[in-house]
Amino acid sequence: xxxxxxxxxxxxxxxxxxxxxxxxxxxxxxxxxxxxxxxxxxxxxxxxxxxxxxxxxxxxxxxxxxxxxxxxxxxxxxxxxxxxxxxxxxxxxxxxxxxxxxxxxxxxxxxxxxxxxxxxxxxxxxxxxxxxxxxxxxxxxxxxxxxxxxxxxxxxxxxxxxxxxxxxxxxxxxxxxxxxxxxxxxxxxxxxxxxxxxxxxxxxxxxxxxxxxxxxxxxxxxxxxxxxxxxxxxxxxxxxxxxxxxxxxxxxxxxxxxxxxxxxxxxxxxxxxxxxxxxxxxxxxxxxxxxxxxxxxxxxxxxxxxxxxxxxxxxxxxxxxxxx
Length: 324
Prior knowledge:
- It is built from 10 helices and 14 strands.
- With about 325 residues, it is an alpha+beta fold.
- The protein is globular.
């Protein structure tokens, strides 16, 4: 092409049509051209959740988002977390009008011998031949994990623990607990019959909270239970076994479990600013490890900007999740 000068201006002559257009566009949109040339920056990474716990799950039930999951489909012995199933069955009967809250059941001698404090399990300290209401038994079942309360409710409703367990399994199937099977109303070791998954436990907790919101508030956040008397005649007062109730803002209920087979376990829920999270940790080595893991998991879950997470491999066999 040829260039011809006129005064201070420079004019591109013949054969310069395409070149002129390219030069004009470059000068007309310099910012766009520079921006497009630069590589896009990756989103800032968010803190990860790392755990050595063998079974952990954290879910936002309203959105359905699983924030963290490790071993969630693995079947394991739930220990006293099975009592949440017992509670759901009893509350369902109350809601349907088939059982009165003030209905009284008598503690049989056989039930007392099987489940009193000498067995080493949790008890609400019922006495033989004592008459106790369904309302009080639910408090003992949920607040202090009474094995005696579970047995009295089961036998009072269906005549035997075995008959009540059949009802438990029917209800579990109806609400979608496809991986779970119950062998006792208390979760006491039964040779491996009672098995659940973390995912099923969260389904159970979600259904209980949604189907029975008033009763969930009534029974699951009681700070303590007073029932029974010591050999000295003093009232027996036991604190709620929930390790994060009163320690973690928004914590409002559900259930611990512990046996040598199951380790230290916890099915818990909390609600902050209208958002609820439900969690399971299982197979922990101590009460402290269970409590610390539960608090740490919930704090991570409620941290600002925490949508569903992708599980990643953690160092030394743990598991991690990174927020997206």
